[in-house]
Design goal:
The chain has about 160 residues and is α+β, with helices and mostly antiparallel strands. It has helices at about 40, 55-70, 100-115, 135-155, and strands at about 20-25, 75-80, 85-90, 125-130. Helix content is about 35%, strand content about 20%.
Length: about 160
């Protein structure tokens, strides 16, 4: 039996104010968020961003609603890749006592997308990284900014 290694920072309070880099993968790493059949024709027309599949569009729509659902959350950046998404989210200061944790936000987000897609689409957990300073933030931002082009470069037919 495979033992899962905890991927959360031991002793860290994920309900406290802070910025978090999150990566959430699809079940079995299925490339369901991009319309891969249109990549060659789309690169120039979409400034290097491949067209999203219907499931990718569901993810994009829910990401756009995240701040309305959680007024105590700021979505700084989101990148939708073929088989995963990256998020830079901030839990804001002055949150109410019952404000959700990062884990709760991700659980509800993943559940909503799976419900809209009509099937489970996510891996069980997600990767998180607590942003420590401005340089750390910019490093993750640049990684997210360049990831689609890098993926396309490495996966050209």
């Amino acid at each position: 039996m495979e033992t899962r290694v905890p991927n959360r920072l031991a002793g860290y309070d994920y309900s406290q104010q802070g910025v978090y880099f999150l990566t959430v993968c699809t079940k079995d790493k299925s490339p369901i968020f991009w319309d891969l059949s249109l990549i060659d024709t789309a690169v120039g027309a979409t400034c290097g961003r491949p067209p999203l599949s219907l499931t990718g569009k569901l993810v994009e729509q829910e990401l756009q609603r995240l701040e309305a659902i959680y007024p105590c959350v700021c979505l700084h950046k989101a990148t939708i890749m073929p088989d995963h998404i990256h998020l830079l989210i901030e839990l804001l200061d002055g949150r109410p006592q019952v404000a959700p944790t990062v884990s709760r936000i991700m659980q509800q987000f993943k559940g909503k997308i799976s419900k809209l897609a009509g099937r489970p689409i996510w891996q069980k957990s997600y990767y998180d990284h607590v942003i420590r300073d401005e340089n750390d933030f910019l490093t993750k931002w640049n990684y997210m900014e360049n990831n689609p082009a890098k993926w396309l470069e490495c996966n050209r037919p």
